[in-house]
Design goal:
Distance between the termini: 34 Å
Radius of gyration: 22 Å
Structural class: alpha/beta
Order of helices and strands: HHHHHHHHEEEEEEEHEHEEEEHEHEE
Shape: elongated
Amino acid sequence: MTKQRQAGVSPQARGREMARLGRHLWQQLGSVKKAAVELMNQHPDICSLQAHRYACGLSQDQAAVRYNEVTGHQTSLGGTTLNAWEAWARGRGGAGSPPTFSSLLILATAYGQGPLGVAEERISPGDLVAEAYERLAPEDQLSLKSFAAATLPSARPETAEPATPGSLSLSQSSASQLLTAEGNIIGGDFSLDVPTVENGNPAIRVFSLPNPQPGQLLNLTWTSFGFGVERLIRQIKNLGRRLDADACFGINEAGLVMATFLASAQFGRCPIGYLKCIKNRDDIALDEASSYPALRESPTIVLCDFEVKHANVVGFITNQLRLRYPGAEIYFAVFGAMTKNPRLEVADFDDLTGAGIMRAADFAAVFIAATMSPPGIEPPLELR
């Protein structure tokens, strides 16, 4: 149970405590970004937008004052606007409203000044909305991408170590374990125990996807995508028993491509289903274009998704499948799973952002190709 849910603790009191803790972490780490990451690790219910404010030791009203100072008092932002942005970033019940790209630029500058207001730490506006990036307006998503591309060095020495969120260096992995897949850096393998069938093999081999552009979506190449699908096939083969699927279902287009590959390569060209999601704010629905093949009673289904992060899309989809196919045994294959910690080579399944979501879905077994950092990964050709 988080502190926020503890009886007798008001949101105001908890906010003051988080600001105190954030400032303390800043004093220890000497960086707003590092302090924000550590704060989110300790308190997963805090969004990135809040964490950066807390790392500066600011209340919402104080952050609004800092914001107006950055604009030379050409704005008159109030604490209620900060509250609306943070409520939106937390993604609860459609509350609040998203900040614009220009507002994120100003906030990044304001928070980069640190608790004392005199620092000059560079904070990417994308870092502030890492977990909520996909819920921004398309125009603001494009602006964030363009801004990141414009601020990157035109060239990077081959020997340079690409940065990852929280300033994690790739030197923490063995250099001999790294390979380049036509532009993507693929981290070394590591073992992870995941939920699995009774008497099955819980240990899977996962690779990490370090992102050399922190705060930006990592665009995957087809080579990397294929490498991940091959990894999922290998995990399925090492489940500990033969898995015969009656159908493979893909969530949206990227999941459909994965389902097609798995059905063809592993499951004897079994039927393929398509689940097209419609997102409206924080609500999820299935489009009529979704396809459901006719299956036997209590079928075995492999559900494929490109990534799992904070949103409980897979939980909603799984419930819908069980309503349509009563008694179905559902296995879950996901390409990328986001981590709570900047370190991508996690030691425990519960170190994944969507661990609780996957456990609650009660899958027969889980297969994961790779781990990733916020804001996530983009499939080839921007498949949705």
